Amino acid sequence: MPRTSASPPTADSAAPAGPSADSALTHGLKQRHLSMIALGGVIGAGLFVGSGAGIAAAGPSIVVAYAISGLLVMMVMRMLGEMSAANPASGSFSVHAERAIGPWAGFTAGWSFWFLLCVAVGLEGIGAAQIVSGWLPGTPEWAWVALFMVIFLGTNLAAVKNFGEFEFWFAALKVIAITLFLVLGLLAILGVLPDTDAPGLTNLTGDGGFLPKGMDGFIIGLLASVFAYGGLETVTIAAAESENPVRGVAKAVRTAMWRIAVFYIGSMAVIVTLVPWDDPKVAEVGPFYAMLDHLGIGAAAQIMNVVILIALLSAMNANIYGASRMARSLVARGQGPAVLGKISSGVPRNAVLFSSVFGFACVLLSYWRPDDVFPWLLNMIGAVILVVWIFIAASQLILRGRTEREAPEKLVVRMWFFPVGTIVALAAMAGIFLLMLRQPDTRDQLLATGGLTVVLIVIGLVRQRRRGGDGVSGDGGDGTAGIPAQRK
């Protein structure tokens, strides 16, 4: 039976041990960095722009859709927080999946997430470049993408505290923006803003009612809301490089509930209360712009462009960081090319370069092959986050019992209503997959993601079989939790 405590490398460990301690990752992130990374991870461009499609489909019921998907995300983060606080590791859920299920599971969860982050870096770069090109007509978008890539490549190649500082201020600006927006919206709802009447329940119950497009519209809104929450996982990756990994991840997870409730559910409630759900601007230019415009704020478009640009740049920075750390952790466990595992001055610079180059290649494909290869890439990442969540839930279901038996003092964060809560979350994820199969657009994403996942599983199983089914010890010498050598 596999052990859960860290053990030194053994002669039959299939992969080499990680780098030596003097080349390990540093612990340069302070608690304020980690708190803001967790806080900023909730507020992404998906909230500011992507939520418009959900409102247009579900109407006022989008509030319920975000509440349901938000509850699922809270459960996932609670499970991930339990495992990460017990065994902090730069590979996060990939490490937990390897410990719980086997090397093939860690390989699949880790590389699929890496692929998701790298493609997302390209998408975010394109979105940011489009905004700046709009301000400076005639400047090529690819040049702005290249500039952003160089900036964040430099940030991530330097000490991890530089990444932390960038994310701290990016997140602070996003938090200030969303807080001001919510305060302004609440004042408008109460009718205390000049030249503004309280809307009452007119927009919630009129024009088709709370469910204007029935359950089909609600389902579309629900699916849109699920994928808007991506980004929370990065905090458990960053926690391994913080001053106090256990305390940091525990605090981040415990405060996830009010962040989700305030920023996502609160924003949706304010928007659909103030703005008619079928206002064309909601879907075309975004619900936040639509609300500011509805309140007569003339600079609404430029205000939102600045906020969205900050959100996109913050996501680029965080995703390059997350992708590089995940790649480095995988390599340290013998799950990838060894050259990516080299660490210089506490930074996995080869992994940073590789992840950035891959992200920029995705940008180039958007120009070279916009009608076939690029859409194919987008479809492949469409449901990756759900695959990752399933690995998280399955791992927690297995590891909780082991930890309770062997090291109960490590359970400083506990999943609610275990094991029922975990099983309910898994059932909800299965339900989301079934709902995706019902919709043509999401069906294509699900099939493409399924294809990617199957390929990774097959590669992972082949690698595991060639290595004799053994796991490896350690998470690559970063000073965090180890992975035991698993024996048959």
From TrEMBL:
Classification via InterPro entries: AA-permease/SLC12A_dom, Amino_acid_permease_CS
The Amino acid permease/ SLC12A domain, residue ranges: 33-443
Chain spans, region Disordered: 1-23, 467-488
Keywords: Amino-acid transport, Membrane, Transmembrane, Transmembrane helix, Transport
PROSITE patterns cross-referenced by the UniProt entry: AMINO_ACID_PERMEASE_1 (PS00218)
Transmembrane feature ranges: 36-57, 63-80, 101-122, 142-160, 172-193, 218-240, 260-277, 297-318, 351-368, 374-399, 411-434, 446-462
UniProt record, GO biological process: amino acid transport; transmembrane transport
Its membrane topology: Multi-pass membrane protein
GO terms for cellular component: membrane
Gene3D superfamilies: Amino acid/polyamine transporter I
Residue spans of biased composition, Gly residues class: 470-480
Localization per Swiss-Prot or TrEMBL: Membrane
Annotated family: Belongs to the amino acid-polyamine-organocation (APC) superfamily. Amino acid transporter (AAT) (TC 2.A.3.1) family.
Name of the protein in its database record: Amino acid permease
Source organism (scientific name): Streptomyces griseus subsp. griseus (strain JCM 4626 / CBS 651.72 / NBRC 13350 / KCC S-0626 / ISP 5235)
